[in-house]
Write a structure and sequence with these properties.
The protein is globular, with a radius of gyration of 23 Å. It has helices at residues 2-11, 16-19, 59-73, 118-131, 175-186, 212-215, 232-243, 260-265, 294-309, 328-344, 376-379, 390-393, 415-419, 450-457, 460-469, 477-485, 488-494, and strands at residues 37-48, 54-56, 88-91, 102-106, 111-115, 146-155, 161-167, 192-196, 198-199, 202-203, 248-255, 315-319, 348-352, 365-368, 385-387, 435-442. The chain starts with a helix and ends in a 13-residue tail after the last helix. With 507 residues, the protein is of the alpha/beta class. Helix 11 links the parallel strand 14 (365-368) and strand 15. The chain folds into 2 domains: 2-155, Chitobiase, domain 2 (2-Layer Sandwich); 161-472, Glycosidases (TIM Barrel, Alpha-Beta Barrel). Bound molecules: ligand TNX.
Length: 507
């Protein structure tokens, strides 16, 4: 046993990080995404004890931290009504400027998180979580000591939009699986979850005015499985779970292509009035709504209206990608009308970058999914862009040729590739101020289980999260791989499956 430990320490000489197992607090150098400034106070530690209490001016963040600590420490961790002299305080004052900014101060006697909003406090608590011993994420009571390294973190995001996308259409995922994914992405300060709710293989949300969309259009999946769909209550439960973790849901109804499930559910949506069969393969580009029929726009208005009514976030995604079965002029007509409908329901349009081929509204956001750095139509469109280049940010691409899951059409993406680009300078000619942020899409043609999702998302999702949060001046692969390697013990405690890339030294 001793020999194995000595061997491990010789193999992984990561100083403070390796010693964490022997009760030294986790170092500031293990935080992902790397903060703007993190200044350790040498020799100072705070110890969470049976006497530790929490005061919070944003109930959600305080309650969540208390629950986490109660579960794993077994201490009472009471919520108190004024800042404790020796304890944890989450304060809505004294924070650095910025809606999502926070400051974290750890001294020998207290932990203080300051933010200007609940979002700022939530972000600060995520940093604190990463400084807690790995065992703090356990579902059962663990032995202490519960030491937190002393010092100050002052931090704020580079981009307002830091997204993840989950394709629940190709394979359906339960509310519990989506909740778990939200918990995992929130730890890395991802603040938007885009749900791809409809595609050729399945329609996954109840629409009361078109009930067969879910009951028939949602009845299968890639490979012919049973499919499934969310009731409105399910969707609202996801929205609420996300909101409590500073994550805003962006629902997508993909149109006018990727619509076979809808066309199969209602014959009258087809130009020829004949419903095609349900589809369980993985081709793209073969289906289209009938852009010449007025009924199509009634359909879009009712679907978007019902979805907007249960979506508190500002964005509604209309897809618009790979509409190979829609003539270009019809595509423009359709997208232009669809975005007016979204606007009439009070939401801002997001569309895959193909929508620049129509006449995007000034507020329409284009999501770039290309595989190259050159796309002048997108760069010159004068619209905000979310960066999801498929050859960098697509979590469904294989890590290498031997990866059992995933696809390769945009290449293979190792951790270093996922990390190795600058969202602010990637698309040639796009002014850096036009970049709204980044998003890591997870398409699920080949993914069926929660484990499959985790294996493809981790460790690349934290890489994309860091590109979205941290100032580019901090970009450094060697430092990043060290921080990333320090995450794996927490993933093991949380039960998160991950790809143990050989590019990273895992603890
Ligand atoms: C392309 S990128 C698609 C999706 C597929 C994905 C698989 C984009 C907007 N559309 O329909 O699921 O590739 O990687």
């Amino acid at each position: 046993m001793k020999a194995i430990l000595a061997l491990l320490l010789a193999l992984y000489p990561l100083g403070g990080v390796a010693e964490a197992a022997a009760a030294a607090p986790l170092p500031f150098s293990s935080i992902v995404p790397v903060p703007v400034t993190a200044t350790p106070a040498a020799g100072v530690t705070y110890e969470i004890t049976a006497a530790t209490t929490i005061y919070s001016e944003a109930p959600g963040a305080g309650d969540q931290l208390a629950q986490l600590l109660r579960r794993s420490t077994g201490y009472p961790v009471a919520i108190v009504t004024s800042p404790p002299a020796s304890g944890i305080s989450l304060l809505l004052s004294g924070a650095p400027a910025g809606a999502e900014a926070y400051q974290l101060d750890v001294t020998a006697s207290s932990i203080v998180v300051r933010g200007n909003s609940a979002a700022g406090l939530f972000n600060g608590v995520q940093t604190l979580r990463q400084l807690l011993p790995y065992a703090a994420d356990s579902q059962t009571v663990q032995p202490g000591p519960w030491l937190v390294a002393g010092g100050r973190v002052v931090d704020q995001p580079r981009y307002a939009y830091r997204g993840a996308m989950l394709d629940v259409a190709r394979h359906f995922f339960s509310v519990d699986t989506v909740r778990a994914y939200i918990d995992q992405i929130a730890l890395y300060k991802i603040n938007y979850l885009h749900l791809h709710l409809s595609d050729d293989q399945g329609w996954r949300i109840v629409v009361d005015s078109w009930p067969r969309l879910a009951t028939y259009g949602g009845s299968t999946a890639v490979g012919g499985g049973p499919g499934g769909y969310y009731t409105k209550a399910d969707y609202q439960a996801i929205v609420a779970h996300a909101a409590a973790r500073n994550v805003t849901i962006v629902p997508e109804i993909d149109m006018p292509g990727h619509t076979n499930a809808a066309l199969a559910s209602y014959a009258e949506l087809n130009c020829n009035g004949v419903a095609p069969p349900l589809y369980t393969g993985t081709d793209v580009g073969f289906s289209s709504l009938c852009t010449a029929k007025e009924l199509t726009y009634t359909f879009v208005d009712q679907v978007i209206g019902e979805l907007a009514a249960i979506t508190p976030g500002p964005y509604l995604h209309i897809g618009g990608d790979e509409a190979a079965s829609t003539l270009p002029a019809d595509y423009a007509t359709f997208v232009n009308r669809a975005q007016q409908i979204v606007a009439a329901h009070g939401k801002t349009v997001v569309g895959w970058h193909d929508v620049v081929n129509a006449t995007p509204l000034p507020s329409t956001v284009a999501q770039y999914w290309g595989t190259t750095q050159r796309n002048t139509a997108v760069a010159n469109a004068g619209r905000k862009v979310i960066m999801s280049p498929a050859s960098k940010a697509y979590l469904d691409m294989k890590y290498n040729r031997r990866t059992p899951l995933g696809q390769t059409w945009a290449g293979t993406i190792e951790v270093k590739d996922a990390y190795g680009w600058d969202p602010g300078a990637y698309l040639t000619g796009l002014p850096s101020g036009q970049v709204l942020g980044v998003e890591a899409p997870l398409w699920t043609e080949t993914l069926r289980t929660a484990n499959d999702l985790e294996y493809m998302a981790f460790p690349r999702l934290p890489a994309i999260a860091e590109l979205g949060w941290s100032p580019y001046a901090t970009h450094n692969w060697t430092a990043f791989r060290g921080r990333l390697g320090a995450q794996s013990p927490r993933w093991r405690v949380m039960g998160v499956d991950f790809y143990p890339s050989t590019q990273v030294t895992w603890l």
